[in-house]
Amino acid sequence: MLNNTQIRYCLDEMGKLFPEAHCELNHSNPFELVVAVVLSAQCTDALVNKVTKNLFQKYKKPEDFIAVPLSELENDIRSIGLYRNKAKNIQKLSQIILEKYNGMVPNDRDLLTELPGVGRKTANVVVSVAYGVPAIAVDTHVERVSKRLGICRWKDSVLEVEKTLMRRIPEDEWSITHHRMIFFGRYHCKAQSPKCEVCPLLLLCREGKKRMKAAGKK
DNA sequence: AACTCGGGGCA
DNA sequence: TGCCCAGAGTT
Q1: Distance from CA(A41) to C1'(C7), angstroms, rounded
Q2: Whole-number Å distance, CA A162 to C1' C10?
Q3: Where is the HhH-GPD domain positioned along the sequence (predicted)?
Q4: Is A19 in a helix, a strand, or coil?
């Protein structure tokens, strides 16, 4: 397992590789961010951004989303995977935000998690990106990178990964950390073809050393 | 813990 | 063609 100094080194190197790391989802306003993140589950972000942009040409506020039949909203996001669940969730979530929160997206993680289609990861993105609340959103990239490097254990749950990161990284770096790890995971430490041979973290990466050793034997 | 939803992108 | 993708809800 890596110590805190080694973790700091890893994050610095990720920052050098991807100095432009940022939230790629459209977040001009909190409500649009919620919709974008709900749509983003199991989809590529480029596609989500395209669809979200088109969506908000037509729909502006929560009341606009519940003013149309479900089938129409489904059709508007048809090019995104899991679109039936997502359309239903966006309508329900729009209604709750409108009725319970007077049209304003709550800035509380627990309240956000009560919304349909919003889990812990989505709630963390929303409070962190839209409201500047310190949080680490653990998605598949953050989880994979943390486990490969040895920041946490392989068997750890997503929540345990998040807790470990929060415990071992200074609070004022949480936000930039999850964006760095997402970029690093997506473009460098890829799920299927990690670039171990050109990785600055190879010498302290548990999985990287194992992979390079296995590749050398072949 | 495993299963399901799911069209588009990419090799 | 086959496989994967900024997850969440249900069983």
Answers
A1: 5
A2: 23
A3: 39-187
A4: coil
Element (H, E) at A71: helix A70-76
| A86, amino acid identity | K
pLDDT (tens place) for every residue of chain A, 218 residues total: 999 999 999 999 999 999 988 888 878 799 999 999 999 999 988 899 999 999 999 999 999 999 999 999 999 999 999 999 999 999 999 999 999 999 999 999 999 999 999 999 999 999 999 999 999 999 999 999 999 999 999 989 999 999 999 999 999 999 899 899 999 999 999 998 899 999 999 999 999 999 998 887 65
Dist CA A217 CA A214 (whole Å): 5
Contacts of A71 (CB under 8 A, 6+ apart): none
Fold exhibited by the domain A30-131: Endonuclease III; domain 1 (1.10.340)
pTM above 0.85, yes or no: yes
CATH number of the domain at A4-20+137-217, please?
1.10.1670.10
